[in-house]
Design brief:
single chain; 256 residues; mainly beta; twelve-stranded mixed sheet; five-stranded mixed sheet; 12% helix
Length: 256
């Protein structure tokens, strides 16, 4: 099944995506037990928003060997966790805003598979962890690369406004997060292409590691890391992150 969050007639709603191009509105978020309500809506009549409302976005750094080689070559002993501020969350088809050159001169795309939590997740074992997942979506972990290096930690570089596009849909059901193709295109040219089977720490292992010390709540996002090929974006660029079985997250880049 597929779900979106959108703006319809001035209201923000969650909806199930039906096979005929229509949407079935829900009375709450699907990961919060939302039920169908009212009639259907044509998909062309709504504006897509980020498909969930997380209390936090937990992201993983350096989780593909090929990306580590282009980063600093140092393989971590355990997953590197960082948080992207909720104020950085952006919508499908939203604008990624480049900050002034005085703040950063290199803003990179980082295409990733994202996990949407479905149940309160605390101290779970890897063997059971995927039972706490509601579904999967796409995330672009936009990064001010020079700020990341100069600050010595990642909070500001990862959390600038508009730096966390998510969407377009949440996919549930028969989906294997550890065996799915992922690619990023910049102005139509493929710049990242990999498969999550190459993740150093697989999805269940990540959830076990994170939930040992950080409780995850329904609607929270875990971004699993980006493969090699990260690179800069400039004013006017169109960046697309595609994950097989989910769709394409597309955003336009504009200077402030």
């Amino acid at each position: 099944m597929r779900y979106i969050r959108c703006k319809s007639g001035g209201q923000i709603i969650f909806a199930e995506v039906l096979a005929d191009g229509f949407l079935q509105p829900l009375d709450a978020a699907p990961y919060a037990g939302g039920k169908p309500v009212g009639g259907t809506i044509e998909r062309s009549h709504v504006t897509l928003l980020a498909p969930c409302e997380p209390t936090k976005v937990v992201a993983i750094g350096k989780n593909y060997h090929d990306h580590i080689k282009e980063f600093d070559g140092q393989v971590p002993e355990s997953p590197i966790i960082f948080i992207k501020a909720n104020s950085s969350i952006n919508n499908p088809d939203g604008i990624i805003e480049l900050p002034p050159q005085s703040v950063s001169q290199r803003i990179d795309y980082e295409g990733e598979l994202a996990v949407v939590i479905g149940r309160t997740t605390s101290r779970v074992n890897a063997a059971d962890a995927l039972n706490y997942v509601f579904g999967y979506t796409i995330l672009n972990d936009v990064t001010a690369r020079d700020v990341q290096k100069s600050d010595g930690q990642w909070a500001r570089a990862k959390s600038m406004d508009t730096f966390c596009p998510i969407g377009p849909e949440i996919v549930t059901g028969n989906f294997d997060p550890d065996r799915v193709g992922i690619r990023t295109r910049l102005n139509g040219e493929t710049v990242q292409e990999s498969n999550t089977e190459l993740l150093i720490w697989k999805t269940a292992a990540l959830l076990e590691f994170i939930s040992e010390t950080i409780t995850l709540y329904p609607g929270d996002i875990v971004a699993t890391g980006t493969p090699a090929g990260v690179g800069p974006m400039k004013d006017g660029d169109i960046v697309e992150v595609e994950v097989d079985g989910i769709g394409v997250l597309r955003n336009t880049v504009k200077a402030r």
